[in-house]
């Protein structure tokens, strides 16, 4: 998803477009991987002295709810990244730095046969580990 698409979703759903929200989206647009609320707070503090975790969390959860961001849990804490659009895929996620790598193989192709009679509405598949850079350090 790009900035224009994200801002379009905000507008379509009736939410205000603010400079803070634009800066939050810009941060995730530039980052490659999952980032925590604390990471975002450190990014935002120079431009918005005194910005609260409450403001950060409210916006992160709004963007997650609107599917502008997607989330995962790493080390017991929610992390976020800009949502992927386009083709169906899954992710490898580095538990140390949060970088992601797309996985085009979908395990649902194998699982569907085991779920005869069940209606699958959605799924999410993630593999966690350490990327080559983090392994080297």
From TrEMBL:
Keywords: Cytoplasm, DNA-binding, Iron, Metal-binding, Repressor, Transcription, Transcription regulation, Zinc. Fe cation binds at residues 88, 123. Its cofactor is Zn(2+); Mn(2+); Fe(2+). It comes from the Bacteria. Coiled coil: none annotated. GO terms for biological process: negative regulation of DNA-templated transcription; regulation of secondary metabolite biosynthetic process. The keyword RNA-binding does not apply. InterPro entries: FUR, Fur_C, WH-like_DNA-bd_sf, WH_DNA-bd_sf. Binds 1 zinc ion per subunit. Binds 1 Mn(2+) or Fe(2+) ion per subunit. Zn(2+) binds at residues 94, 97, 131, 134. GO terms for cellular component: cytoplasm. Its main location: cytoplasm. Belongs to the Fur family. This is Fur family transcriptional regulator, zinc uptake regulator.
